[in-house]
Design goal:
single chain; mainly alpha; two-stranded antiparallel sheet; 16 helices; about 70% helix
Length: about 400
């Protein structure tokens, strides 16, 4: 039985206005110019501003890889309409490898203080060797990006081959990559979060930090997927495959990870507070100084309570005037979260928005959005021969009778 007709042309280009089509290049150029000026005039501030922006956008790319994996790991069908979007987000990870170069260059001199203490390490640093060494830092980065490159591009390779041939071996190959890929993903994300963000204060111990970064990453990715899906449905490429169920299920997961992130963040804080060990508590004590206390309160009410209460109603997940502002709010909260983790090192007295923060966000965001649009124009916007196509569209087959489409 053939799949139902889909009211879109898979080869049609994305209908983006001339003004919006140039926005990534404008962000890239302006952000890159301002960033270069900042690097030359204030390399330490640039290094930390760039790291905040980098970890922010890395979250979204890793979230895309995660959803690409779980689609095949659980043989899901609801993710089918947005599977190609997730694959393209995941394939931005090699670009993130290139964008890591400024961090790699500035790391020993302006970002990570422990690199300057390697000749006379204290007890906390000595306990983390040989990982916390110059060789360990750069080798771990190479291993992480190599794993992400292999996993993201192999999964998209088999997905695109499935579009051409429809061969079942493509589905089996994708399931195989997902089976080992979930372990590679978990290990590499945790190692990256520890080496690039947690190590800014290397004395600190937290066994939950990888899960903490993962929860925030998936939460932010779901907000991003919701917005991208709305845009692509309105502009045409996904208008035949994206229905209310796609938005509802994305909103349900967005709601679920709102709770999951809050649970992980609170558990980390509570366990450290309860143990009352100085090598753990100093991290939170530092973040109760100045306006960082207000940022912490904002995380409680803005990162959890506001989206939690907003999405309690089922119909809220399908109401664009509610969900689009909420997704934008989620980006703001995730930026605050990354700043809360990184910026107290150089701004211990409180949270500030530096012009380099905006420049670095614009530059990395411009680069990634430009490459994402190139990916999307080059390949079909959704999996053309996914075996779950009919089920994802709510079409049910019964014997030899014609397929019956479920109500949207």
């Amino acid at each position: 039985m053939s799949s139902p007709a889909i009211a879109t042309n898979p080869s049609a280009p994305i209908a983006i206005g001339a003004k919006w089509g140039k926005l990534p290049l404008i962000l890239l150029a302006v952000g890159g110019l301002l960033g270069a000026i900042g690097w030359a005039s204030n390399p330490r501030q640039f290094g930390y501003s760039y790291l905040v922006a980098y970890m922010f956008f890395l979250s979204i790319c890793l979230g895309g890889l995660f959803f690409s994996i779980i689609h095949h790991l659980f043989d899901a069908n609801w993710t089918m309409p947005i599977r190609r979007v997730c694959e393209h987000l995941a394939c931005l990870l090699p670009i993130m490898g290139l964008l890591f170069l400024p961090i790699a260059i500035l790391a020993p001199t302006h970002i990570y203080s422990w690199m300057q203490n390697l000749s006379h390490p204290d007890a906390a640093l000595a306990a983390k060797q040989p990982l916390f060494t110059l060789k360990g830092f750069y080798i771990s980065a190479l291993v992480i990006f190599a794993a992400w490159f292999w996993l993201s591009f192999r999964m998209r390779h088999w997905s695109l081959l499935q579009d051409k041939t429809g061969d079942p071996k493509c589905t089996y190959a994708l399931r195989k990559h997902a089976a080992y890929g979930i372990f590679v993903f978990a290990f590499s994300l945790t190692l990256g979060a520890i080496m690039w963000m947690k190590s800014l204060e290397y004395q600190w111990f937290s066994t939950m930090y990888g899960v903490y970064y993962f929860a925030g990453s998936v939460w932010t990715t779901l907000a991003t997927l919701y917005v991208i899906t709305v845009v692509l449905q309105r502009t045409g490429p996904l208008n035949g495959v994206v229905h209310n169920r796609t938005f509802h299920d994305t909103g349900v997961l967005f709601f679920a990870f709102t709770v999951f992130y809050a649970y992980i963040a609170f558990s980390q804080y509570f366990l450290i507070w309860n143990a009352a060990m100085p090598e753990e508590t100093f991290w939170y004590v530092q973040r109760e100084k100045g306006s960082w206390w207000q940022v912490g309160m904002l995380m409680i009410f803005g990162h959890f309570l506001l989206p939690f209460l907003t999405m309690l109603r089922i119909d809220a997940k399908l109401t664009l005037p509610v969900m689009i502002p909420l997704c934008i709010w989620a980006w703001m909260m995730h930026f605050c979260d990354m700043s809360f983790n990184i910026m107290p090192v150089i701004h211990p007295d409180g949270f500030i928005i530096h012009w380099l923060d905006i420049a670095c966000m614009a530059f990395i965001g411009g680069v990634l959005s430009f490459v994402f649009i190139l990916y999307f124009k080059k390949h079909p916007p959704y999996p053309l021969k996914d075996p779950r196509m009919d089920e994802a569209l709510g079409v049910h087959h019964s014997g030899g009778r014609p397929p019956i489409a479920a109500a949207d």
